[in-house]
Amino acid sequence: MIIDAHCDVLYQLWKNPDWRFQDSPELRINYEKWAGNTVKVQCFAIFVPDTVPSDLQFHTALEMVNIFYEQIIAPYENIKLVTSKEDILALKDNEKGAMLTLEGLHPIGHDMIKLKTFLHLGVKAVGLTWNNGNAVADGVGEERGAGLSTFGKQVVEVLNTYNVMTDVSHLSYQGFWDVMDLAKYPIASHSNSRKICSHVRNLDDKQLKALIKKKAFIGVTYVPEFLTGTKEATSKDVIQHIEKIYKLGGEDSVGLGSDFDGTSGFVEGIEDHAQYDSFLQELKARFSKELVEKIAWKNFLHNLEAKTY
């Protein structure tokens, strides 16, 4: 069993309306690839590119929600919407779980009702920013590097109230620490170790240890630039980042957050969903059975305990 905390299939289906979730080979996650492996739960992110005009961003995000329900949930009897630990544990052997997440709060502007609309539509993890800044906080690509705004702090309180995970991936350094002070359920859905690879999107040891102290989920991601700092990487590089987080004390935090369909780079040995079973065997060859289960699914599931609204 595997839970993957992040992918950008919804963005790709929105961007390429002729593609089909069923079998489009361009998708690194499609139904046929997913049906044939041991990934039990896949998180699907709503990501609105910053090229969309601000007055159309909320509508674009809703289009992606519609894609999620109409193209991923509705056509397949064995794909179930999951919003809680209980939903995941209730999945039958032949069933898969799909969870809706949000990457970046730029589509809501300063409107809390728009945020609550996403939560009522089933979003269970919210990344506060993408790389740029918004009304909530700055992302890692914003030179100003500001933390949470007053509105941003209110956003985190709403996420706490709704028992929704606050995702620090893409968030500015100061924003990270503001979230750690306020969030009940912080996670990093797709971030790696900056000690191994000094990319701005990665987390330094101090940040990783802060997440680990709270047993917060940390999803290692399969982006070559975040793994090696180059355009080339292998599954062994993914395992190196997993091991680094584990050695910092992250046995109960480290997990998987592929970012499939979110980047153009490929990691040799885990190019797409179809390679997940062989990657799981690599993990089993390197770590104990108990630790592999934590990496593969238990650590993510732990962050969903009692998180229903």
Q: Could you name the key traits of this structure?
A:
309 residues; alpha/beta; TIM Barrel; two-stranded parallel ribbon; 12 helices; 9 strands; hydrolase; Metal_Hydrolase; Membrane dipeptidase; Pept_M19; protease
Structural description of this entry:
Keywords: Dipeptidase, Hydrolase, Protease. GO terms for molecular function: metallodipeptidase activity. This is Membrane dipeptidase. The chain is an alpha/beta fold and 309 residues long. The protein has one domain: Metal-dependent hydrolases (TIM Barrel, Alpha-Beta Barrel). 38% of the residues lie in helices and 12% in strands. The protein has 12 helices and 9 strands. The longest helix is centred in the first third of the chain and has 17 residues. The model has no long low-confidence stretch (mean pLDDT 96). The strands form 2 sheets. Strands 1, 2, 3, 4, 5, 6 and 7 form a 7-stranded parallel β-sheet that branches.
Write the layout of secondary structure elements.
Elements: E1 2-4, H1 9-15, H2 31-35, E2 39-46, H3 57-73, E3 79-81, H4 85-89, E4 96-103, H5 112-120, E5 123-127, H6 150-161, E6 165-167, H7 173-182, E7 186-187, H8 205-213, E8 218-220, H9 224-227, H10 235-247, E9 254-256, H11 276-286, H12 289-302
Parallel strand pairs: 1-2, 2-4, 3-4, 4-5, 5-6, 6-7, 8-9
Helix pairs in contact: 1-3
Protein name: Membrane dipeptidase
Organism: Salirhabdus euzebyi
Keywords: Dipeptidase, Hydrolase, Protease
Q: Supply Rg.
A: 18 Å
The name CATH uses for the topology is TIM Barrel
Shape: globular
Instruction: Quote the beta fraction.
Output: 5-15%
Average residue-wise pLDDT: 96
Number of helices: 12
Question: Uncertain spans, ≥5 residues at pLDDT below 50?
Answer: none
- Can you tell me the CATH class? Alpha Beta
User: CATH homologous superfamily?
Assistant: Metal-dependent hydrolases
Instruction: Briefly note the structural class of the backbone.
Output: alpha/beta
- The domain tally reads 1
Report how far the terminal alpha carbons are from each other: 26 Å
Largest sheet: 7 strands, parallel
What sequence of helices (H) and strands (E) makes up the elements?
A: EHHEHEHEHEHEHEHEHHEHH
Number of strands: 9
CATH architecture heading:
Alpha-Beta Barrel
Helix content: 25-40%
